[in-house]
Design goal:
By secondary structure, the chain is an alpha/beta fold. It has eight helices and twelve strands. The termini are far apart.
Length: 284
């Protein structure tokens, strides 16, 4: 009897050593996360403030990449945990880009979305198809998988792309009200997981959601003339990360016209190439 107890204690001690060692591995950058449900007991998350510098790069980013900005927005899938750790070591906050309104055929989790809620091809991005965002319960396994990946890699926040299905032709009768309901769910999911989350374009959300999202990212807002529609974020001391693109605006126009207006509005504004490579021009 004494021998059996000793063996049990020894086995338990060995198991603990293995578990503790695994917990400090470079491959495990967060607490263990359930495969189907993200951590949903957090009460705090990163809250960026007005004036925070920003850069956005969706091509390959490695641990050796250097950014001048304090906040870096990168692809959730192609960016490794090691890269996120390296960026944190350089004092950066790191946002994970994911699509929440379309399914991309070249992502490894495409099989988690039921075929019946996959709609039309997004013409500008042929590898993507719109999703029926009204079917939140059916989207949960897919969303949870993405949140878990983001948590495991150690990201600080999320950029949820393609929330504007109501303003496109998704193949479903999606309204602005549906987008607001979905946005509320995403915000709750992100915050309960300890992650910041931003509004991506969809200026119509601003009046009701500037108090809920943690920042906003705009594309071509100055060029298209709706940049003041997201000004409410600044009144709440939350950053507006305004991105203009070289295929629609010259560098001279950006520096001479956009930057003075952006500074007056207290926006963080950058000029990028449409493919979001490393090149960037900041308002000086």
């Amino acid at each position: 009897m004494k021998i059996n107890s000793f063996l049990l204690l020894s086995i338990s001690f060995l198991a603990c050593l293995i578990a503790c060692k695994k917990g400090t591995s470079n491959d495990d950058v967060s607490n263990p996360i359930d495969s189907t449900q993200p951590v949903q007991d957090k009460t705090d998350w990163w809250k960026p403030v007005t004036g925070t510098s920003f850069d956005w790069q969706l091509d390959d980013v490695s641990p050796g990449n250097n950014f001048a900005a304090a906040v870096v927005d990168v692809d959730a899938f192609t960016t490794s945990a090691e890269t996120v750790v390296a960026l944190h070591a350089k004092g950066k906050k790191v946002i994970a880009y994911i699509s929440v309104g379309t399914i991309e055929s070249d992502r490894p989790d495409a099989n988690l979305v039921p075929a019946k809620i996959i709609g039309n091809v997004y013409p500008e991005w042929p590898k993507e198809k719109w999703l029926d965002i009204r079917q939140i319960d059916q989207l949960k396994p897919w969303l949870n998988s993405r949140i878990n990946m983001i948590l495991k890699k150690g990201f600080d926040g999320i950029e949820p792309d393609n929330l504007d299905s109501y303003d496109n032709e998704p193949g479903f009768d999606i309204s602005e009200r549906d987008v607001k309901k979905y946005s509320d769910y995403l915000i709750t999911l992100a915050h309960a997981s300890g992650l910041a989350i931003g509004q991506k374009n969809v200026k119509e959300l601003t009046p009701d959601f500037a108090a809920k999202f943690d920042f906003v990212i705009t594309e071509d807002a100055f060029k298209e003339g709706w940049h003041k529609d997201v000004e409410k974020y600044i009144t709440l001391n939350k950053p507006v990360f305004a991105v203009e693109y070289t295929d629609k605006m010259s560098q001279k126009d950006f520096e001479s016209n956009v930057c003075p207006a952006a500074k007056q509005l207290k926006y963080t504004t950058i000029l990028k190439k449409r493919d979001l490579t490393a090149w960037v021009d900041n308002c000086k």
